[in-house]
């Protein structure tokens, strides 16, 4: 299940319209979210979200950060979605702001720059969510 689908189901379970959610997110978190942009997130047309918007959506719907996993990796690389497969691991470039474990690494040099940016954004999101900075 994609992050957009999870957001849509969560919104529908709360019996809120896209407009209700957009207004509530802006009021509570100060993050601008139009109804059309929320619609694009729900349908999977927009997956490159800002850390602030991602955090606001996760908090608003009381979702765990793992709900956003589809934004950062293929489902095949998430162990619970790939039974019988070895879990994929990621190695960040040496200039990454956090340490890596050299025993469990796969180089990511071949990833497009927006994928590398997404990994860094997710790292920043985790630091923010768990207030380690």
From TrEMBL:
HTH cro/C1-type domain boundaries: 7-68
A Pfam cross-reference name: HTH_3
InterPro entries attached to this UniProt entry: Cro/C1-type_HTH (IPR001387), Lambda_DNA-bd_dom_sf (IPR010982)
Any GO molecular function: DNA binding
Family annotation (Gene3D superfamilies): lambda repressor-like DNA-binding domains
Top-rank taxon: Bacteria
Protein name: Helix-turn-helix domain protein
Biological source species: Methylomusa anaerophila
């Amino acid at each position: 299940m994609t992050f957009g689908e999870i957001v849509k189901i969560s919104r529908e379970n709360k019996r809120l319209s896209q407009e209700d959610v957009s207004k509530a997110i802006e009021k509570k978190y100060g993050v601008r979210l139009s109804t059309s942009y929320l619609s694009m997130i729900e349908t999977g047309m927009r997956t490159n979200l800002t850390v602030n918007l991602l955090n606001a959506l996760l908090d608003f719907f009381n979702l765990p950060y793992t709900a956003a996993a589809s934004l950062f990796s293929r489902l095949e690389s998430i162990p619970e979605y790939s039974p019988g497969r070895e879990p994929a691991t990621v190695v960040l470039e040496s200039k990454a702001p956090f340490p890596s474990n050299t025993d469990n690494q796969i180089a990511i040099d071949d990833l497009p720059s927006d994928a590398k940016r997404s990994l860094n954004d997710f790292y920043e999101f985790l630091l923010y969510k768990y207030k380690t900075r």
